[in-house]
Amino acid sequence: MRTFRSIPSDRAELIEVPVDDGLVLNLYRFAGGHDRPALLFGHACGFAAGSYVPLLTRLTALADVFAVDARGHGGSDAPTADLSVYSSDHYARDLARIGRAVAARKSQAPILYVGHSLGAATLLRLGSLNPVEFDSVPWRAALLFEPPIFPSPGHPCHAESQAQDDRLVERTKMRRARWPDPEVFAAALADRGIFKRVTPEFLRAHAAAGLRPTTDETGYELCCPPAVEAQTFLAFNDASAFDALSRFPADLPLHLVGGDAADPERSWVTLMAPAIAARLGAPSPRRHFTALPGRGHLMVLEDPEMTQSLVQTMLSEY
Quick check: is 251 in a domain? Predict the structure, then answer.
């Protein structure tokens, strides 16, 4: 029995899914909507499935909602002795395992996938570089929010991307790991960079999902240890997926969403979104790209109504 889950038991059923390296991941299935199409949600790095509970609860009006805590995140196993288990290919293979677990519970019905940041990049890596694993899951369509797909050395955005990513990794290694309680954590996040536009409801959800009680019960600690989060950022800091995007299966309908590239605080991920979409074949009848004015990398948590509307459009079209 798992000792921590990022989504409470009164909101979702817990399904334990074994993956490589002897790890076990937490997959959640929300109550209600089991007769509706399957939708699987993948979260951002350093977050957890429970960080999105207010949105995922809304989505149960449209679909049978599943969400996963990636390895090293939420209630899933998070070993720190060997950080090599947090490679981009490990994350990709995990997603295939999770997809098959969802399909098994839906009589192999096609799965709609919604991915944010890490969750979005993982699907693109799976489809571009792990085709056999990708094909083992009956995907129906995908909605991806700002995947961090690192550019090739010759790309005009490479130098800025590298500099920003280097700073991010160093800051992440120094992240405060222990907190007195989730309320203090949420209050601290409210004044930080990309979290400034996140609604209080989602800040509280993220704080509750991202902290677990310490073993000595004297406070709380990050479910995703700083070393794991930093290693995950590093794992996606190579151009192999970007160079392979043209091999992503052309028959899968895909909508990629980016933030506001004119925002002075925008990240390299926002800057790269149009180039990633172009490599995936957008615009075309089955490939779309949307840039959202005034939105940052945490757009999913800034504007849940927009996210729900995009999911509803995907459902109606596919």
Answer: yes
Count the Cβ atoms, other than its own, within 10 Å of residue 32: 11
Q: Which residues are 218's β-sheet partners?
A: none
Stated as kind and residue range, the H or E segment containing 96 is: helix 88-104
Instruction: For residue 2, tell me if it sits in a domain.
Output: no
Note the pLDDT tens digit of each residue in 53-89: 999 999 999 999 999 999 999 999 999 999 999 999 9
Instruction: Give the range of the structural domain holding residue 183, as residue numbers without chain letter.
Output: 12-317
The total of structural domains in the chain comes to: 1
Looking up residue 33, the CATH number of its domain turns out to be 3.40.50.1820
Is residue 5 domain-resident?
Answer: no
User: CB-based burial of residue 194 (10 Å sphere; 0-12 exposed, 13-18 middle, 19+ buried)?
Assistant: middle
- Residue 33 in this model has a pLDDT that exceeds 90: no
Mean pLDDT of the chain, nearest integer: 96
- Please indicate, yes or no, if residue 103 is contained in any of the structural domains: yes
Give the Cα separation of 277 and 146 in Å (integer): 10
pTM across the whole model: 0.97
SS3 16: strand
Q: Give, for 101, the enclosing helix (H) or strand (E).
A: helix 88-104
Residue pLDDT, tens place only, 163-176: 999 999 999 999 99
